[in-house]
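Please, structure for the following, as tokens.
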Amino acid sequence: MQLVKFADDPGVGWHLQGGKFIAQSGHAPAVDPLLHSDIPRTWISDQWLSDLILYTLYNLGFWPLIYLVFILIYIGTYFAFLLKGTQHISGARIASVFAVFLAFKIGLVHFILRPVVFTFPLFVLLVVFTFSLYRHIKSVNLDKLPSKAWLLPFLFLLWTNIHPSFLLGLGFLSLLPLALFLDGIFFKAALLKNRKIFIQLLALFALCSLVTFINPYAWRLHKAIISLLSSEFFANLYEEWRSPNFKELPGTIVIFTLAVIAISAFLGGALKWGFFELLCMISFSALALQASRNLPFFGIAMCIPLAEALNNFGNIQKFSTLPVFRLLRKPMARIELREARAFPPLLLISLVVALVAVYSVRGKVMLYDGFFGPSPSSYPYQAMTRIPKGSVVASTLGWGGFIVFHCDIKAIIDDRSTVLGEEFYREYFRRMTPSSDWKQYLKERGATHLLLPPDSPIALVAERDGYTLLHKDQTSALYLFP
């Protein structure tokens, strides 16, 4: 059901056009080739590899193939990688199913056609490995890190070129040596027994940090990302950068997760956690409360603690006296045992096979017969057919990516914050109002056409002033700009 507007993200068009540029030129862009400007603009394409992957998929199978691949990535992330890892570390199989399902539901806020989806399996691998390593270090007096730990730099090398959220992954990894340091101080453990491991962890973190500079832009990538993240203007501009609505399902799941963990830890008293779990909960709860875009990462990071907290309710003595609890205990124990002895997830494998088979035969996604690509109710398909090649279109921020997706047509603005910068957006919003000098502004920008929602203030002014109307429907109004 969420596929109905799966491709309605405003960045879809420029992601695909950016990928096309990379495929044809053989390198990541240094100067923006998409928007119209008299002065060349620097483009730090912080998702260049994702753009190339998206364009390759589109070139091979158009929209249906992109939909299929994203579905497979999403299903595999949660019900293969995350579920298996959570069950292995927590030892609580049924509780892990509930925890993963909640993580899946909260992650749906970002199940849209965006490169960030490519990072979810990478973050899951990092979370599962880091939790497992922390528990192993606490229980065994190791002399050196497992050899597979030194594969993490390769994960960050890939992640750096896919999406800026690699910084969040580095932040998560940094919690491990910090937690061992605090464990050593407050619990007289871990650090004192494993000083060599602690030093190796610092070296591993340093190496993972260094490989993030292996990208087409080197240190400039980090500078651009940090500059964007520190901007209060952009934090207020985009809805996903704002705090989640706790009356909606994702926000409710955040509160429920934290409440379950707190109640279980307070009443159960059997959670033998260290500083790593505590730091993980504090840092990712703060991120989730800060911005909706962090919710999927919160769900994944909290999955293992939540599964263990749910399972720990069996240790709460007050519950053991309840008749309902006594009735449920034995059946749940039998289900847990059956789950432990179960064959590999046949249902999941069958679903993947069915999805691939339906696409191979019909060229569509199983159980979905809707529209593929940006939806016609949200984007001006008909109006774009009336715009000649070489035109420069003044439009909304949300339609800029859709416009540049059409070859040989330039837009004035899109939602690439790192390209246009805060100053450009401030001027655009200030001058593109009926009470301001919007006509002069569009002349300065070289606009040849005006494409806006029909009920927008400037579109109404253009109609009143007798601008030549080329097309009008419920979605858009296209005017020839004099």
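The beta strands are 392-394, 410-411, 449-452, 468-472, 477-480. The radius of gyration is 26 Å.
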